[in-house]
Amino acid sequence: MQLIAPRLRVILIATIWLIALAALVLWLGSSRLQRVAIAGGPAGSETLALTEAIASVLNEKDLGFRLIVFETGGSQQNLQLLEKGRVEMAEIQGDTPASDTVMGVTTLYQDSYHLIASDDSGVSSFADLAGRRVAIPSASSGQFNSFWFLARHFGVADELPRALPMSEDAANFAMELGQVDAVFRVRAPGNDAIRELIGDRNLQLIPIEQAQALALKQPAIAPGLIPRGSYRGSPALPQQNLDTAVVDRLLVARADLDEGLVYRITRAIYENRSEILDHSLLAGFIGPLPDDSDSVITAHPGARSYFDREKPGIMQRNARSVSAMLYMMAIIFSALLALRTHWVRSRRMRMHDFNRRLMELSSLARTDSRVDTLHKHKHELMDILEEVVGDLERERVSQDEFEHFSFTWQAVDALVRDRLLLASGIVTGSVEEKS
């Protein structure tokens, strides 16, 4: 005798095979490395070096993803690649305009606006660049937009026909040959390329003033300093802390990039920061994005989840209020419990009083033989019943208590009736005898 019909057995086997196949597909999917393309920056830039350092360290770990860094023309091109979906992540200058399809992952370090001019150029402020030959970064970089933003602010945008976009190497060479009067860059203080450009030459760093006013037009900008001696110790260059404008260098991602993947990448960067620091000193400046209300770019949900992981929850933030509420609730609950206990006790005492009165009537009925007295007991029984029914309607007694009372009341009522019948018979017999 077969326990399972042949058709059912086939269906059961097929189901098991399908479940096993689905489990295998899920396992293969979870074990496959996720490749993340990152737009790094121009060749030789500190931005590209830091990105490659991050990728090198994290790719040595078994983290379930692999970072692939690409050399690009700069922040502007990085954003274009990101918005077109050709890369998943990118590094950009914080003042580069980005769409809602781009979200922040972490702050990498701060860039400072640098204006380097020859001593004999006559340039002592940004406004002095009018009519001068200036080497500026290429149009694919965020620095290009930063330069023209400053030019518009200081009112010299129409007086810079000889602002020439070129690579860093070309700009350095042009400055050495005296073909340009100044070079503009947005780089971290102590940048190697700028240090190489300055060397022992007669060059000076020009302050970028009015940073607070610049921030009114571009919130990504903040007042900052280039520390004294950043590019030469003796004689110091700059000779004193130099006022300038600073802007964050950001690691950003596509808004539709998986939240869990962004969380794991963000966590890996922070957990391995000391190793990344061995490859790039700029890793020491990696820090979380500010709250969205204070940031020029919205944090990716995956990154925000990591940054907020240790923030106190709503219960912890309102611990005192919650404690006070719980304390008040405990007091109120205790008071309600005490009131209920008192109410139950008073109700039981009332039923006890009714039962006591019934027992007293029962005791009197057993000894009374006068009809008028027994009728009086009968009326008292009815009065007691009326009181109890009234209490039942007002919920001063429960249904169970009423049922127990009814049993006792009926017994006493039967006793009174029997005594009445007996007394009535005695009275009738006495009358007949007298007749």
Characterise the protein shown here:
There is one protein chain. By secondary structure, the chain is an alpha/beta fold. The chain has two domains: 35-311, D-Maltodextrin-Binding Protein, domain 2; 320-434. The protein is 51% helix and 17% strand. It contains 14 helices and twelve strands. It has helices at 6-31, 46-59, 75-83, 142-153, 168-176, 192-198, 211-217, 259-271, 273-279, 301-307, 314-317, 319-367, 371-393, 399-434, and strands at residues 34-41, 65-71, 89-93, 102-118, 134-136, 163-165, 182-187, 203-205, 221-226, 232-233, 236-237, 242-254. Helix 2 (46-59) links the parallel strand 1 (34-41) and strand 2 (65-71). Helix 12 (319-367) runs parallel beside helix 14. The chain is elongated. The termini are far apart.
Question: Summed up, what is this model?
Answer:
Helix content is 51%, strand content 17%. The chain is α/β, with parallel strands linked by helices and 435 residues long.
